[in-house]
Amino acid sequence: MGDAEFTPLSALQHYLYCPRQCALIHVEQQWAENRQTAEGRLLHDRVDLPKTQRRPGVRCVTAMPLADAALGIGGIADVVEFHARADGAVETPFPVEYKRGRPKAHRADEVQLCAQALCLEAMLNVPVPAGALFYGQTRRRQDVTFDDALRQLTLQTIAAVRAMLGVGQTPSARYEARRCDACSLIDICQPHLLSRANGVQAWIARHLQESV
User: Fold this and answer.
1) What are the C-alpha distances in Å from 205 to residues 11, 161, 171?
2) Rg (Cα) of the chain, in Å, rounded?
3) Numbered ranges of CATH 3.90.320.10 in the chain
4) How far is 126 from 120, CA to CA, in rounded Å?
5) What is the C-alpha separation between 169 and 192, in angstroms, rounded?
6) Domain DUF83 spans what residues (predicted)?
7) In this structure, what are the phi and psi dihedrals at residue 160, rounded to the nearest 5 degrees?
8) Which of 49, 114, 189, 199 is most buried, by the most CB atoms less than 10 A from its CB?
9) What single DSSP character describes residue 88?
10) pTM score above 0.85
11) How far apart are CA 181 and CA 209, in angstroms?
12) CA 101, CA 134: separation in Å to the nearest integer?
């Protein structure tokens, strides 16, 4: 598989946040920055350079490339901790993803992290049962268990994203204040304007159908 055939791990998080945002970024190659994305970039600066550090019982690798050719996904893990086992068996990988803000009601961050675990399992042929999300606003880790439900949601999201990117079509806009007002792409997306346009088109189509 060439690099272009791999779906970026970040696209899974973008898709669950908003399919249109995902397409604008990964199909149309659009990007804009706001305060939230700038804070996220600064938070990632400490883990953007590949290096290995050790502390008792743990080996930490930052900016680790990941891929699963069978699933067609790939990207860079912020941190992968390799925890030593008391029985001397192979170290257990433990991915850690850095996020600005605080834990969210949706599972987009968890799916991105679980996809990293799937890549690690494919690459290293060892089980990866758990990982963690580190949130910059709370300065705390949130442990994530990769149970069957999360793995199934992750696989479904991978399939949906790859299908959308394969078609290469950007979904229509629909304004939702809580989601859209925080998005750095709001001026490119124009959800207020395009949502009204979609409403007008639907009204015209409905009336044309009624007149036939």
Assistant:
1) 33, 29, 19
2) 20
3) 3-171
4) 8
5) 20
6) 10-190
7) -65, -45
8) 114
9) -
10) no
11) 35
12) 9
